[in-house]
Design brief:
- The protein has a 6-stranded mixed beta sheet, with helices on both faces. It has a 4-stranded antiparallel beta sheet with strand order 9-8-11-12, with no helix packed on it.
- By secondary structure, the chain is an alpha/beta fold.
- The protein contains 10 helices and 12 strands.
- The protein has 2 domains: 201 residues, Rossmann fold (3-Layer(aba) Sandwich); 107 residues, no CATH class.
- α1 packs across α10 and α7 packs antiparallel against α8.
């Protein structure tokens, strides 16, 4: 999915907490221009440069950036660290260093007098600390003079067959906003066919020749799964997705569960055989274009690429929210 727009395509942005650039691609699809990025994880930086080239300026740790060293730009895109708010993590929230990064981003917004931002975080932020963390963040953005629009959405409804719930925040500097002009959130689109994403031709079959297969058979016989499933039964249904993340096996049809850092237990059936979900397929499920996903194949260790894809922003969702921001700008 690519949305065409000819208006406000002169918007320049910096890609903070960049990961491997999912947010960047979404905005570039709208004609916006990236003028730098901020990322500290060496493995992510390597992949980012494989995607976008070695000439890109990495401003490094955003908590140590002197805003005077940044070029002028219009928009900030950032999937700020979510581990401290995620139900998967320890939920330490604002007590954790990573929970403070949102305030580093706000300091940059204020120092550069930024016009716009798009931020992303996990669903768990909504109820962390009985909602207090969300309130603190929204209050801080309000005090920084931004009108903020936010919504919890699933990537499943915006162009990829992945059940990924995330909060998206769109901000516009208050002096640029006219009273009574509504921000319109993107409308859901038809879910695409899962089979168009599970297309890796690499040898990732999962069978009795693999040691992990024995572990999988034992998993089917644990106290949660015993008697519920058989290998023969599972192999009958092509594109059946099998999630072994929990003690109890979970099955999905037409979609995959949320990809995340550290999740490597997703299998699926194709041509009557079990296959592992690959890093290449994970990139496609995050909306990365095939040519970029193909470009990285074989250059990054598979386990690392799976983690990086799981931590990325969904390209399609950033793009539709970016388009709605452009529409809003054109009205004000």
């Amino acid at each position: 999915m690519s949305i065409q727009t000819t208006q406000n395509n002169n918007i320049e942005f910096i890609d903070f907490c960049a990961g491997i650039g999912g947010g960047r691609i979404g905005l570039e699809n709208l004609g916006m221009r990236c003028v730098g990025f901020s990322e500290i994880a060496p493995s992510y930086i390597r992949t980012y440069r494989e995607f976008f080239g070695d000439d890109e300026t990495n401003y490094g740790n955003l908590m140590k950036i002197d805003s005077k060293d940044l070029p002028d730009f219009d928009l900030m895109i950032a999937g700020f660290p979510c581990q401290t708010f995620s139900v998967i993590g320890q939920r330490t929230g604002m007590k954790d260093y990573r929970g403070q990064i949102i305030f580093g981003l706000i300091d940059i917004m204020k120092a550069k007098n930024l016009k716009y931002f798009i931020l992303e975080n996990v669903k768990g932020l909504l109820n962390h600390g009985s909602g207090e963390s969300m309130k603190i963040i929204l209050d801080a953005l309000d005090q920084a003079r931004y009108k903020v629009f936010w919504k919890l959405v699933s990537s499943l409804h915006y162009g990829v067959p992945q059940m990924r719930e995330r909060i998206y925040f769109v901000g516009v500097r208050k002096d640029l906003v006219k009273d009574g002009i509504p921000f319109e959130f993107p409308q859901p689109v038809k879910k695409p066919e899962l089979k168009d994403y599970l297309i890796d031709a690499a040898e990732l079959e999962f069978d009795e020749k693999k040691r992990a297969y024995e572990t999988f058979l034992k998993y089917l016989e644990n106290k949660y799964n015993k008697g519920k499933f058989s290998v023969e039964q599972l192999l009958k249904e092509d594109y059946l997705v099998i999630d072994t993340r929990q003690s109890d096996l979970r099955l999905y049809r037409g979609m995959v569960p949320t990809l995340r850092t550290g999740r490597h237990g997703i299998l699926y059936v194709r041509d009557g055989k079990f296959r592992r979900l690959s890093g290449y397929e994970s990139l496609l499920l995050q909306g990365f274009p095939k040519e970029l996903a193909q470009k990285i194949k074989g250059k990054i260790e598979e386990v690392s690429l799976l983690s990086q894809a799981g931590n990325a922003m969904t390209v399609n969702v950033v793009e539709v929210f970016g388009k709605k921001l452009v529409d809003f700008i054109n009205k004000i």
